[in-house]
Amino acid sequence: MSNDLEHYSDPDNTAVALFLLENEADELTDILVAALSEAFRILEDEISPATVH
User: Fold this and answer.
1) From what superkingdom does this record's organism come (predicted)?
2) pTM higher than 0.85 for the full model?
3) Which of 27, 36, 37, 51 lies in the 20 to 30 Å Cα band around 45?
4) Spatial contact of 42 and 10, defined as CB atoms under 8 Å apart
């Protein structure tokens, strides 16, 4: 896995199959890590307490 977290678009099934076929596990791992990071960011935004003014 590289240390560069880039914003990846949502890969389709064909792209994922191509990564697997070409044995490019590092690139696929980078996409999955970026997707998980984005999911956790969204969840964090959803569960953070609202401020009261």
Assistant:
1) Bacteria
2) no
3) 27
4) no
| Closest CA relative to residue 15, chosen from 30, 4, 5, 3 | 30
Give every CB contact of residue 15 below 8 A, 6+ residues apart in sequence. none
Q: Is 30 helix (H, G, I), strand (E, B) or coil?
A: helix
* pLDDT on residue 19: 76
pLDDT digits 0-9 by tens, 20-48: 788 877 888 888 899 999 999 999 888 86
- State how far the Cα of 44 lies from the Cα of 23, in Å rounded to an integer: 33
Q: What is the dihedral of CA 31, 32, 34, 40, to 10 degrees?
A: 160
Cβ atoms of 1 and 30 within 8 Å: the answer is yes
